[in-house]
Amino acid sequence: MIDFKSIETFLWVVTLGSFGGAARKLNTTQPAISQRIAQLESELGVKLLQRDSRNVTPTPSGRQMMQYAEKLIGLRSEMLAAVMDRSAMRGILRLGVSETIVHTWLPQLIEQVANAHPNLSLEVEVDITPNLRARLLAQEIDLAFCLGPWSASNVRNRVLCDYPISFVASPSLALRNVVLTAHDLARYAIITFPRKTQPYEIVRSLFNRPDLPSIRLHASASLATVIRMATDGIGVAVIPTAIVERELAEGQLNLLSTNLQVPALTFSASWLASPDTLAAELVADLAVKLAQGEADPAARAAASRVNAAKAGRPESPVLR
């Protein structure tokens, strides 16, 4: 008898174009995927997939089968969403996250997911937005918290929150209590987001003017490094205010007044439209509630104090 596991396996092999991709998605081995497909083809009495050295494509019968597979898996997800106890949700959700979120409310989200869905495991990977989007399209992750929302027909989005951007610097630079212009700031090194990100290009464009001297723009892939460089007085950092609340409160950094405007960063939860997205949607719902609650400065400051008391600032490899 044909079971849902075989149908789900077939759907992901076709969607991802390979047995290896389906094995990673379903957290199993490639031989197990091959066995399920062989059993499905044997039970149906038709060849569903055409294999070559590069990828796997459906046969005419496979394309017809795919239409029904998508409907069946979609109905299963719809049924589970309506009927099942959410705490019984099982499996692994591969979550890609921008580092700004790592340093704000991600620890609270992981705790909430563990409480609400104790049988759902999170595999968290931190990267910049362009890489997260590429990985989501390649189905290497299931859900991304990154700059957005993302305009693509096959992507679903939920807006999480906005983070204002500030200019901050060490008190040793003596830049407090004065409104700084681009000419004033251009005398110092500017420390900000890594290259190939939208915020980096925005910051660079602010100083890419013929009336200004060439600036030293330090782009770092490490959020901890950006903060450390700023507190050490190496230059002026242009980063979300939320991630340096502790340094501002303790006097390690000063919030600068300037006539330059940097748009706030809007983050969204994004996932690919597919028949089986229940886990991604549940985690996205939790993230929206938490992130929008964290948008309240008092709530965010309280959470920041709790995090600092528990474990100090996390050291993540990449920023934004």
Structural class determined from secondary elements = alpha/beta
The CA-CA distance between the termini, in Å, is 48 Å
Count of helical segments?
13
Biggest sheet: strands, sense, closure? Answer: 5 strands, mixed
Spatial shape:
elongated
Low-confidence stretches: 295-320
Multimerization state: single chain
Question: What fraction of residues sit in β-strands?
Answer: 15-25%
Q: Spatial order of the strands in the main sheet? A: 4-3-5-14-6
Order of helices and strands: HHHEEHEHHEHEEEEHEHEHEHEEEHH
Q: What is the helix fraction of residues, given as a range?
A: 40-55%
**Count of strand segments:** 14
The average pLDDT score comes to 86
Radius of gyration: 24 Å
Word description of this protein:
The protein contains 13 helices and 14 strands. The C terminus is likely disordered. It is of the alpha/beta class. The radius of gyration is 24 Å and the shape is elongated. The strands form four sheets. Strands 4-3-5-14-6 form a five-stranded mixed beta sheet, with helices on both faces. Helix 6 crosses helix 12. The termini are far apart.
SSE layout:
Layout: H1 4-16, H2 19-25, H3 30-44, E1 49-51, E2 56-58, H4 60-83, E3 91-97, H5 99-102, H6 106-116, E4 120-126, H7 129-137, E5 143-147, E6 155-163, E7 165-169, E8 179-180, H8 182-185, E9 189-192, H9 198-207, E10 217-219, H10 223-231, E11 235-240, H11 245-249, E12 254-255, E13 257-258, E14 265-272, H12 278-294, H13 297-311
Parallel strand pairs: 3-4, 3-5, 8-13, 9-10, 9-11
Antiparallel strand pairs: 1-2, 5-14, 6-14, 7-11, 7-12
Helix pairs in contact: 1-2, 1-3, 1-4, 2-3, 6-12
